[in-house]
Design goal:
alpha/beta; Rossmann fold; 18 strands; 3 domains; HerA-like
Amino acid sequence: MAEAVAQAPFGKAISVRGSGARVGLLPSSRLTPSAIRATVGRFVSIRTASSTIIAMITEVSSENLAEGVEHIAIASVDLLGEILPGPVRARFQRGVTNYPTIGDTVELISSEDLRIVYEPSGSDQINVGTLQQDTSVIAYVDVEEMLSKHFAVLGSTGVGKSTGVSLLLNEILKSRPSLRIFLLDVHNEYGRCFGDRALVLNPRNLKLPFWLFNFEEIVDVLFAGRPGVPEELDILAEVIPIAKGLYVQYTSTDRLGLKRVDPKSIGYTADTPVPYRLVDLISQIDERMGKLENRSSRIIYHKLISRIETVRNDPRYAFMFDNANVGGDTMAEVISHLFRLPANGKPMTIMQLAGFPAEVVDSVVSVLCRMAFDFGLWSDGVSPLLFVCEEAHRYAAADRNIGFGPTRKAVSRIAKEGRKYGVYLGLVTQRPAELDATILSQCNTLFAMRLANDRDQSLLRSAVSDAAANLLSFVPSLGTREVLAFGEGVALPTRLRFKEVPAHQLPRSEAAISTVPSGAAGNDMHFVSAVLERWRGATSHRDVPNDPGIVERPIARTLDAPMLQPSLGLDPDRFSLLKKPLR
């Protein structure tokens, strides 16, 4: 907007309250046609004796105007901050110290004032797009404020949420190349977004030993997400610490030639992250079963052994139980590999969850969140980590009866205490109303995209404490890639548009699968047979594509994992992959 237009009188302050004011709009003949278009969501400046107050129009009405008044309409504005003169140049600060008085002149904000408001205050700023009001003004986000106080990206399906996440994370990697990022990729859509800067993990190349799971998590695995049988849980709680003591006893004896001690006296609990072997666990259960004479009691022990053996032999769980009877303390290697220490040019980990058994996903996420926090805790936050949780409402549901309790607890712990230990949280969800409100309240920078659900909008309204909460009335009508940004990471609550993302950084879900069948994709019996081969291969030990049981794959193959994403659709190239097992 031209400077001359911005200086034209737009209105006068007619009432002032704590966080807002009402402005009487003067007849439009004093303004150019483009200026008349100023309406809800536009910024205005109120000139006072000592500063320029920046405000946003939240409502405009011409109803119930008194006879003979000078103005033709009344606008409600929220007071957001002020531009103060400085010795070298003017500077912007949030909040208002010098309130306007009745009759102060109100003007449409100039591009120059907008640039003062949004100019980067330091080198730690990332360019995420442009203002909706003035596309010549770049919208910057303060990386330090956004990360250290957590952030969330909220939006319905199809509004560009995944693209926005890709944009934010790529910009963060540019600004903080040494920051480690761990992304939970629920739908396997981010595999190609970060190029050679990311390690992609899935069930085929992940090694997450079962003994890293604490008691609640291993119970969730053994009972497939259902409540455990109390009698069997009592047995497990007794024998797991003994199995850990036996393993340590064996390794100590082999290495040092020490006299064996009673494993019960070593002092481990069922949650202590030390190795143990399944063969020792089962032998301890079997030993106790052999001492029983009551047949009904023996059945409980037998069922527990069968349950453990069933999960152990399921090829879908090979990432947990590979070498389960061999042992080996690989905790340092696992943490180094998962959380990129050292990064070796790949500071980011993408954990693709779509290939994991549905019954075990919550437990796996719980282990990852817990280990990320505990490593930050015991390392005193020396190596910061950003933990990004896609579809966060699945793991930290508002309803305590939904989901896995330890997962919610682990995410909540990062949200509440993680910043003290260099573990930062990024939440991404399309249903904020289903997300634990306490966890969401810890995110001090919010990027809200279009949300159609009333419950989601009301929860967002309660989570935003800024003076511009009235901006949330725009949420249902936002366009694709349009965002309302609130909180510590942005200079002002702002309506902006995310910038274009290069094609190679677009999440694959953006290329929606057509509802029109393609002849090239194949619809004959050979095609169906190839799909069934992959399908059955997921639960057998045969060497077929996408077989999670194939655990001996060289690390160099990990970059090929994204090629088999479900989100890529059944295109001709993928069909050729279906017909040939990977070697």
